[in-house]
Amino acid sequence: MVIGVVTGALGQRWYDCIWTGQDAHAGPTPMEARHDALRGAAKMVEAVNTVAMGHAPDGRATVGFMQVKPNSRNVIPGSVTMSVDMRHPDDDHLVTMDRELRAAAALIAREHRLECEVRQVDQFPASRFNLECVDAVRRAAKTLAYPYREIVSGAGHDAIYVARVAPAAMIFVPCKDGISHNEIEDARPEHLEAGANVLLHAMLARAVVSRAAR
User: Fold this and answer.
1) Cys staple from 59: which of 16, 32, 47, 52, with CB 3.0 to 4.6 Å?
2) pTM
3) Domains (ranges, CATH) in the chain?
4) Separation CA 89–CA 153 (nearest Å)
């Protein structure tokens, strides 16, 4: 595909999960007597992945940050704070994913004699772009004979906020190895040209409609 006709963006929920156990020396403390907060957090990383896979192909869930205390080679961790980022294009699915995340945390905490606080720190509802703007992009791609597909943006963009106050849409072009939002992001010049051409034709089409409506 050369053109991505972006119809909206994933909803997002961000969390901090705080695991509390008991600091203890790595040598004298038997395995069965430990309250290892990092072990609970490690289990939670896999549970987060399982939640997302249960809502495939659109579900996303990521642990991108973990802070271990006391963070010493020979001390069993007594506290771990970890982030969780969950995304889905359907807000109802996000509600279910939230419930599954909290249930997994509670189960892991019970099994490993820990405490876990799941604290939601932010929420962004799923976005739907203006249908007429999306259609203008779609028709421009067809007119210019560029292969295209409809796609939902996985990341946040300024257009999401613009769409709250004015009609908006977006155009995507391919990046090498599918990597975006990264310093090694790389798009071929001919794909950038195609995206610019689609933008031009979509804007001209919308301008004609706007003038006719006056």
Assistant:
1) 52
2) 0.86
3) 3-7+127-212 (1.10.150), 12-124 (3.30.70.360)
4) 9
